[in-house]
Amino acid sequence: MPTSAPVTRRTPAAICRATASLTQLTGAAIGAAVLLGAVTLYQGPLLQSGEPIRLGIPLAIVLPDAHFALIESTGKKCRFLEHVRDTLALTNVEVVQARAEAHKPTNRYDTVLARAVGPVADLVRNAGPLVAGGGRLLAMKGRFPEDELAKKLSGWKVAAVHRLAVPGLDEERHLAILARD
Q1: Does a structural domain hold residue 70?
Q2: 116-166 pLDDT, tens per residue?
Q3: Which of 176, 173, 79, 160 lies closest to 124, judged by CA?
Q4: 23, part of any domain
Q5: CATH for 37
Q6: Tag placement on the chain: N or C end, fewer CB within 10 Å?
């Protein structure tokens, strides 16, 4: 009977750790781009949608003068975000339990940063109403999203696209910045 090569199993916990590390490095890359002046986050509040534990928390640590609202629809994840916020004494973090398309803030956000939220057109439809006049939508993408950015974006235009250098990652990462037409 032939023997097969040993199977390497990746447990869900190991996969989550590896993914979290890469995403946190991506968050750090955005933080570095902001600190170096390549990307501007406006002075007002910033809403982060799409896996906030992996991006919003690292950015809040790197950018302590910015106010971050982290939006998450799952209550259990919100409680965890609140625990992390409180444990790290991040006074610049607010946790919002809602879906972006259902969120009705008292004041709109100067910047909405989204990760893992699907096509750019969906981001514009769901999060565009949350952006204050003169504000920006920032979409984290992997490969350059040429097809997505070529589509009509319902009153939005591409202001810039930055390639992000993530240490230890050979894959492409981009940050697309959208402004109102």
Answers
A1: yes
A2: 678 888 889 888 999 988 888 888 888 887 888 888 888 899 998 888 776
A3: 176
A4: no
A5: 3.40.50.150
A6: N
- With a pLDDT cut of 70, the percent of the chain lying above it is 70
Report yes or no on 176 lying in a domain.
no
Other Cβ atoms within 10 Å of 23 Cβ, number:
20
User: Model confidence at 91, in pLDDT bands (50, 70, 90)?
Assistant: very high
Total domains present in the chain = 1
pTM of the complete model: 0.74
Note the maximum CA span of the chain: 70
Where helices occur in 36-145 by DSSP H, the ranges are 52-62, 75-87, 120-127
Who contacts 33 (Cβ-Cβ below 8 Å, separation ≥6)? 39, 162, 164, 175
101 inside domain: yes
Q: Are 34 and 63 in contact (CB under 8 A)?
A: yes
Q: Which range of residues forms the domain containing residue 78?
A: 28-171
What span, in angstroms and rounded, lies between the C-alpha atoms of 164 and 167? 10
